[in-house]
């Protein structure tokens, strides 16, 4: 813990930790020492980790990287961070992210972007660690902590993990409680671990899972011992390669790593099968209707009364001005854009044309996956991202759609509620990490982790 706290102080330039909690960390580390001495050491005992700023942590600023939550210190702890603390994990602080988890580069954060520890060859230009869990990715990759929590609504664990060469898993929707995690799009949001390798992910995920009466969508299924399932034996497993993920203009090196990944799994005894997920091309537009729709509803609660910050009011301002000024000042541009899109697609005149249609598309996408699993496919292998990490400022706000394209391989998994994992696959010609994604059957994270283990 002490060496991580020092590393964090020395790495301020990465802007990964936005609230440091050294007192809490040292206190928890001491308590962990005592537990270890007493022979009562659960799996995460004494392990220093970072917590994404989207998780409410009792008495510690939890701002979802937004100005509107300035000054908000929750009275309660999210279920997942509580489970980690109960398992002896030591929270070092809160990690940077895109505002309300909306983004793919960490550039929408009120704290300014986190920076990747990686560079392109000899070029000094700063690169994005991805988003929205960019602080988590940067911190784990730069050895500021052993692991971190992330959340994934459309790729926010898997894309940043791929950009910095670490492992990140989004479990099946309902595996982890969402209670106490600031809501973005409630039917898509899931928490998950971001770690240095698959074994760490298995250990940490087990701690984060479990039924929670405070989240009606959390499953009552028992939590398996994921680590015990890492045998590396994938003989006879059928791995699907979906042809729709072979996008036009995809860099040749990503194609190459994808083929190499398939070869590795084949060498380990798996059977590689060409498959089709015909509705893939509608996933991104459906996601960018459904996610903003849910966000516009979830973010209605930030009204200047219940949480965080209220704008300075002028003489004579009424409640309407208070709402307007608070929300205009408190939300950044991307969040405002999402709220506007969401409100539009839910409005009476457009509900059927956009929101309802997107929901139907979502059902078709889910069915694509159900069909291939029913045909005997155990896991699906795809690239995690359509490119390696890019330079900060390179994909500016002027073209939000360009940024949204980053999620092309990851959003299908959230729409279908499936588990997905990103594992480091190698480096591109400029020396930057690329990731491969494995998508598994619902509730079979253990199997998925084991397949990823064979790919590691
Ligand atoms: N990049 C996607 C978005 O901006 C995904 C974000 C996420 O998974 N939280 O919505």
Automatic annotation (TrEMBL):
Keywords attached to this entry: ATP-binding, Ligase, Nucleotide-binding, Protein biosynthesis, Transferase
GO biological process: translation
SUPFAM superfamilies with a match to the protein in the record: Amidase signature (AS) enzymes (SSF75304)
Domain Amidase: 1-449
Region (Disordered): 113-134
InterPro entries, per the entry: Amidase (IPR000120), Amidase_CS (IPR020556), Amidase_dom (IPR023631), AS_sf (IPR036928), GatA (IPR004412)
Active site (catalytic residues): 52, 132, 156
Subunit details: Heterotrimer of A, B and C subunits.
Protein family: Belongs to the amidase family. GatA subfamily.
Protein name: Glutamyl-tRNA(Gln) amidotransferase subunit A
Organism: Ruegeria atlantica
Gene: gatA_5
């Amino acid at each position: 813990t002490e060496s991580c706290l020092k590393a964090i102080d020395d790495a301020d330039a990465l802007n990964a930790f936005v609230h440091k909690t050294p007192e809490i960390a040292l206190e928890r580390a001491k308590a962990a020492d005592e537990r270890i001495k007493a022979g009562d050491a659960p799996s995460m005992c004494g392990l220093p980790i970072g917590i994404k700023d989207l998780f409410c942590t009792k008495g510690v600023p939890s701002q979802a990287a937004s100005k509107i939550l300035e000054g908000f210190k929750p009275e309660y702890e999210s279920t997942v961070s509580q489970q980690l603390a109960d398992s002896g994990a030591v929270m070092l602080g809160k990690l940077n992210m895109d505002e309300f988890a909306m983004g793919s580069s960490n550039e929408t954060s009120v704290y300014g972007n986190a920076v990747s520890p990686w560079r392109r060859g000899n070029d000094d230009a700063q690169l994005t660690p991805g988003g929205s869990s960019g602080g988590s990715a940067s911190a784990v990759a730069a050895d500021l902590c052993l692991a971190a929590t992330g959340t994934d609504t459309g790729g926010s664990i898997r894309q940043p993990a791929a950009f910095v060469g670490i492992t990140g898993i989004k479990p099946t929707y309902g595996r982890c409680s969402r209670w106490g995690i600031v809501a973005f799009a409630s039917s898509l949001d899931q928490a998950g671990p971001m770690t240095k390798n698959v074994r760490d992910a298995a250990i940490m995920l087990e701690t984060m899972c479990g039924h929670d009466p405070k989240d009606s969508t959390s499953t009552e299924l028992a939590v398996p011992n994921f680590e015990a399932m890492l045998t590396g034996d994938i003989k006879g497993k059928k791995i699907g390669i979906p042809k729709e993920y072979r996008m036009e203009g995809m860099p040749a090196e990503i194609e190459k790593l994808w083929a190499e990944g398939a070869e590795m799994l084949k060498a380990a005894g798996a059977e590689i099968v060409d498959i089709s997920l015909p509705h893939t091309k509608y996933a991104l537009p459906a996601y960018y209707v459904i996610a903003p729709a849910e966000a516009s509803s979830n973010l209605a609660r930030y009204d200047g009364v219940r949480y965080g910050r209220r704008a300075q009011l002028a003489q004579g301002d009424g409640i309407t001005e208070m709402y307007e000024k608070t929300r205009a000042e408190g939300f950044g541009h991307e969040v405002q854009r999402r709220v506007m899109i969401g409100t539009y697609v839910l409005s009476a005149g457009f509900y059927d044309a956009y929101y309802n249609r997107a929901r139907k598309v979502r059902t078709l996408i889910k069915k694509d996956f159900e069909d291939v699993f029913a045909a005997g496919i155990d896991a699906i292998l795809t690239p995690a991202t359509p490119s390696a990490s890019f330079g900060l400022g390179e994909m500016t706000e002027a073209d939000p759609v360009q940024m949204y394209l980053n999620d092309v391989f990851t959003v299908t998994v959230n729409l279908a509620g499936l588990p997905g994992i990103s594992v480091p696959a190698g480096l591109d010609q400029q020396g930057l990490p690329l990731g491969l994604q494995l998508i598994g059957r619902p509730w079979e994270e253990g199997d998925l982790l084991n397949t990823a283990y064979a790919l590691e």
